[in-house]
Design brief:
mainly alpha; single chain; 85% helix
Amino acid sequence: MFEDLTLLIMTFLPELVKGIIALFIVVDPLGNIPIFVSLTDKTNLQQRRKIFNTATIVGLILLLSFTLAGQQILLLFGITLHSFQIAGGILLLIIAIRFLILNNWQEQPESFETVGAVPIGCPLLVGPGAITTTILSLQTSGVVIAVLSVIITFSFVGLILRFIDPVHKFLGKTGSLVISKLMALFIASIAIQYILEGLRIG
């Protein structure tokens, strides 16, 4: 019995670690820090914490939903993952254009809470790549590993977003403005790449 338990752990842990690493790389909270900073550069400390808490919760719920029922949802509405790539790309492109022209992506900039849900929670954290990775993990490793990978990954995401304020203070107002413009171009590039991949594969 002890040998069976050891064998189970030895096979379970590598799969879990692989699932966490793959999802963390795709979600990429560290690489997206400049984007998060530029999206929240007009908010105070309390507002940023609410935004990032919302982003973490929304991202976790969305990805868990797709983990448990993603394929059924897509089949129900006749939607492919390639359609998600195109839709996510269009949304990101709109965000980038608004940033470049208006220095803000929202119609009503006072509604800061919505920034946590869209675009930070989705599609920046939970985009087509994260959804695809989670569904593949579900197919190859099973529901337990897929769910644990999502929960552990977003625990790290929440921790990273919790300590993002020192980065914001380091950049300052001018640095945040420069980052905002550069990241708008970067977001546009990601958006176009999503659209092209969706069109090419679809």
